[in-house]
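Sequence and fold:
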Amino acid sequence: GCRVAIVAGVRTPFARAGTAFKHLSAIELGKLCVSELIQRTDLEAKLVESVVYGTVVPSVIAPNIAREVSLLPVLPKGCEAYTVSRACASANQAITDAADQILLGHHDVVIAGGAESLSNVPILHSRGMSDKLLSFSRAKGPAQQLRILGSIRPKDLVPITPAIAEPSTGETMGQSAEKMAKINHIAREDQDQFALRSHRLAAAGTEDGRLTAEIMAVYVPPKYEVVLTSDNGIRTDTSIDQLQALKPVFDKRYGSVTAGNSSPLTDGASAVLLMSEERVRTLGYE
């Protein structure tokens, strides 16, 4: 049977939301990452048959991120592209789907990955405001338009920000994590120790080059004066005492999940190059 090869992977640094990448969209981050992957692997871009890409919070204006990323001038016009969504596992789902397509014999060379810009979560109008704007666009004559404008109240102007919450229960990930910790008896001490270990390993991996080897430097437009070369959310100086001093965020009374032992909201993108075993051999990749 055919096997799927992971030829190479690259990612942008992960930047805390509202910092270095705050003016870059998920699509822009994805394009930067995919073009870097093609350059690093010296791949003849016309060989890429498909781009499978994931995102958690899609842009309302351009929801099909994979198609936008695949429109890079270097990629062939016939390159197939589709977006997958599976909450935080969207990029993993993209890689799984890409591997499946290769296993099924549909493609030999696929780029898969994901991007997120939590700095740029879409802000939506309230239902009332949407209705009024729609009526305004259909209004017959200035008198009717004025009447509709006159009916707008302050409450209509309050925007809606999509919470990273599960719609049927309204629970955020943090609340969900609290519930999970309680059900599985995961003590605050264990969560803090695990968080400390994560920061220490990330700091060590950045220091010795293991992480930075797969990270591309991002020169931030429009002036390109800011350049990010590694993740800016790693707390190299944190200690167990500092972590234990933090108060719970989601369940202030009985909770154990804090800002220190949760993952931060970040912006970034990643991409991997997948090929069928046969194609890897003919192209001479490892």
